[in-house]
Write a structure and sequence with these properties.
Rossmann fold, 245 residues, alpha/beta, seven-stranded mixed β-sheet
Length: 245
């Protein structure tokens, strides 16, 4: 699960083309807003890019301190209980947050509550169910297990990104739309993802059962991919947004 050791993981992912495009589009959708609340603001780099007053909300004291150091006014609070008046801000940004939560519906409900009518909620999440992993010569069941660990073990709600539009509609939002951006990674050692290490990491945590022989076969296939090409994985980033009615 996500913790403070991952303080800069998302910031490193931000340099990848598909992620960069999704973030830029999210900023476009919030253009002209007077005040934006960034739910789960993390290091504050996203809030710092918003072209208006942006207020960060994060439960981690490390994240709050880091965000504040960038000049972003940041409040330490849970995104499921935002200490901001109802109908008081022009928009909400939520970037790679909901799938970390036990109750993502409550966080989205809070986003709608604090946003004025006509304001916009903008959410960006990678859809790990869309992930395509190619590791030539790797056992297929290990490829499938790698994807499964990302969805089911790495996040509290790894399947929530696809549900965001229906959640926005259920909360009364209108003009709900989805846009998609593709991430392509061809370097097995891409630091923001470190895909080759997922299986061993979860085995060490006793979350999955794989043998050392299976891990050796996986490592051999990854090593071959480093030298012979053929390794890649793709991931679709979903940008969901709606207007508060």
């Amino acid at each position: 699960m996500w913790n403070e050791r991952h303080v800069d993981v998302q910031d490193r992912q931000n340099e990848i083309e598909g992620v960069r495009q999704a973030r830029a589009r999210a900023l476009d959708l919030l253009a002209g807003v007077d005040v934006v609340v960034d739910l789960g603001s993390g290091t504050g780099t996203g809030a710092a890019e918003v072209d208006c007053l942006a207020i960060g909300i994060d439960a981690s004291p490390v994240m709050v301190a880091t965000s504040s150091s960038l000049g972003v006014p940041t409040c330490r609070a849970r995104v499921e209980a935002v200490p901001i008046r109802s109908r008081s801000v022009g928009g909400v940004r939520c970037d790679r947050v909901l799938y970390h939560l036990q109750e993502p519906e409550q966080a989205l409900s809070e986003a709608v509550r604090i946003t004025r009518r006509g304001g916009r909620i903008v959410c960006t999440h990678p859809d790990h169910e869309s992930m395509v992993i190619s590791v030539p010569d790797a056992p297929e069941h290990l490829v499938a297990l790698t994807k499964w660990t990302r969805i089911e073990l790495n996040y509290r709600n790894g399947r929530i990104p696809r549900r965001v539009p229906e959640m926005l509609v259920a909360l009364g939002c209108v003009d709900v739309h989805t846009e998609a951006f593709t991430v392509v990674v061809e370097d097995p050692d891409s630091a923001p993802y470190a895909l080759p290490h997922w299986l061993r990491s979860w085995k060490n945590k006793r979350a999955i059962e794989v043998t050392e022989a299976e891990l050796a076969a996986w490592d051999d296939a990854i090593e071959a991919g480093r030298h012979n090409n053929g390794f890649f994985f793709t991931l679709t980033y979903l940008l969901n947004y709606g207007t508060v009615s």
